[in-house]
């Protein structure tokens, strides 16, 4: 009679789950996103010793991109004295990591992988936002998804766009290629526009464009919350 296998411990169960997750395409994209984020943190930490002001501006711009949006983040970058290429590169990295991590977690959650409880509510909110724009994008397929990601309207953007791609049934590589391609084109367009606006409004104050965009973002957020309550 063969001996019984040892009981599965919680640590072993978590290890097996992560191995099975990393065996999927979404698991590997998630690992890539987390690796890029870790490298960015390490790079900023190392550079802070020599260029503390620039690193602080990059960190603030990244946070504004994640919390308020791309336009406000990039406008702050220009206002704080960062050049065009650092602004573009930083926002490309931030939005790439954001898409890879959130999209992968969303798909894994839809496939009943066990995710932390604190992720349930924000992922459900993202799905609701994606479903509200799903019908309009479906009519035009991949082209519609690209335009949805590129256009600077409230609640459009790469993260919601990637979830719409999943809801459309697109393959992961197709979704990420279209969403990230639209994102990079949008960042380049934003960079050219905001650079011109920053130079044009310099007489009104260093942070004039940033403050206007921040006010518009806050107003849009308030309108969105008001519509939800209604």
Please give a structural write-up.
The mean pLDDT is 81. The protein has 230 residues and is mostly helical. Helix content is 78%, strand content 0%. It has 10 helices and no strands. α8 packs antiparallel against α9 (172-200). The radius of gyration is 20 Å and the shape is globular. 29% of the residues are buried. It starts with 9 loop residues before the first helix and ends with a helix.
SS element count, helices: 10
| Relative strand content | under 5%
**Mass-distribution shape:** globular
**Helix/strand/pairing category:** mainly alpha
Our measurement of the CA-to-CA distance between the termini, rounded to an integer number of angstroms, reads 67 Å
Tally of strands: 0
Unreliable parts: none
Assembly state of the chains shown: single chain
Mean pLDDT: 81
**Helix/strand order:** HHHHHHHHHH
Please compute the radius of gyration using only Cα atoms: 20 Å
What portion of residues is helical? over 70%
The largest β sheet comes out as: none
């Amino acid at each position: 009679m063969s001996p019984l296998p040892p009981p599965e411990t919680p640590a072993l169960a978590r290890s097996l789950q992560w191995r099975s997750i990393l065996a999927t395409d979404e698991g590997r994209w998630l690992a890539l996103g987390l690796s890029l984020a870790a490298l960015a943190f390490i790079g900023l930490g190392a550079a802070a010793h020599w260029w503390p002001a620039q690193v602080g501006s990059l960190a603030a711009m990244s946070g504004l991109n994640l919390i308020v949006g791309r336009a406000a983040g990039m406008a702050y970058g220009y206002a704080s004295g960062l050049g065009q290429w650092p602004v573009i590169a930083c926002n490309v990295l931030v939005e790439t990591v954001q898409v890879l991590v959130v999209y992968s977690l969303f798909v894994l959650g839809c496939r009943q992988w066990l995710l932390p409880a604190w992720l349930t509510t924000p992922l459900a909110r993202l799905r609701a936002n994606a479903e509200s724009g799903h019908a309009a994008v479906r009519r035009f397929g991949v082209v519609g998804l690209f335009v949805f990601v590129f256009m600077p309207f409230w609640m459009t953007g790469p993260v919601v766009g990637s979830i719409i791609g999943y809801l459309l049934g697109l393959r992961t590589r197709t979704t990420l290629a279209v969403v990230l391609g639209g994102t990079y084109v949008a960042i380049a367009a934003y960079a050219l526009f905001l650079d011109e606006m920053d130079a044009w409004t310099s007489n009104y104050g260093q942070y004039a464009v940033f403050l206007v965009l921040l006010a518009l973002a806050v107003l849009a957020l308030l309108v969105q919350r008001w519509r939800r309550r209604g």
